[in-house]
Amino acid sequence: MEPFGPAFEGDEQARAALDALLESLQQRHKGSVLAVLFYGSCLRSGDLFDGLVDLYVIVSGYRQAHTHFLSAFANRVLAPNVYYLQRAVGEGSVRCKYAVLSIGDLERGVSRKWFESYIWGRFSQPVALAFSADDTTRDRVRSCLRRAVITLLDRTLPCAPPNGTISGVGARTRTELRDRTARRGQPTTLDPGRIRRRFFQQATEAVAVQLRWSFEVDGRNYRAAPPDRVRQHARLAWALRRASGKLLSVLRLFKALFTFEGGFDYIAWKLERHSGKVITIPPKVRKYPLLFVWGFMWRLYRDGVLR
Q1: Dist. CA 77–CA 69, nearest whole Å
Q2: How many whole angstroms separate alpha carbon 137 and alpha carbon 305?
Q3: From edge to edge, which strands make up the β-sheet containing 163-165?
Q4: What 3-state DSSP class applies to 30?
Q5: Cβ(174)–Cβ(101) under 8 Å?
Q6: Which residues pair with 196 in a beta bridge?
């Protein structure tokens, strides 16, 4: 099976929940939605009512997708914008966190020329295609998902041993704020690490011949031979990428205060998962964010929450 963007196949309840979200997304961003990508824990479990559904909404352009100029400007300057959506489905509710990204930024962000790992790193993981406007768009998006894995391998293999396991190469790189807490009580069959490793092995086998140097895959093992100068440049690039990636993640979190309904609560939840520490938002920060959020962010950095 093609590992890059298969169509989402859920049960009747999951499909109804996803259809409800897609309908609302089309209404919010009329005429601009080209594709919707589904990823994250709800995709792995198949239960869309447990937690937040993670979606990427791929649009034709930011000005078409947003009714306000400032929202479109913020999306263009520091993509993506993140929003919250909730829909009643049957007797329950499905909740969604979705990011808006233009098709042009998607194609640029997965290319080998793009330095930051935010986009090509994000899409080098299991992703299902929840919606595509037409066959051309579907093929265009799947091509982007394939290129994301090629770029990830191009960036990570020079820093990896000449011989090793695919799962080692596919491990997450620490360029963003990540969850340091493990899920407890999750069934073994839904183990996130296992699902990612299986996906990454299939994806790597599919793109191995498209890399710029000798790369061979034998089951779960690989052999790679990047030139020495490429290895040296890659180590320096990752040092810079980790520093800039974490800074950009903080800026995106700050931007979410103004685009995400309940933005402070979302950020507190995100940082608690990242740090394992309880985050309390002071009332004055909620009331006057532009005045007091800077000192609040500095205290979080000083306490090790944002590192």
Answers
A1: 12
A2: 40
A3: 163-165, 221-224, 215-218
A4: coil
A5: no
A6: none
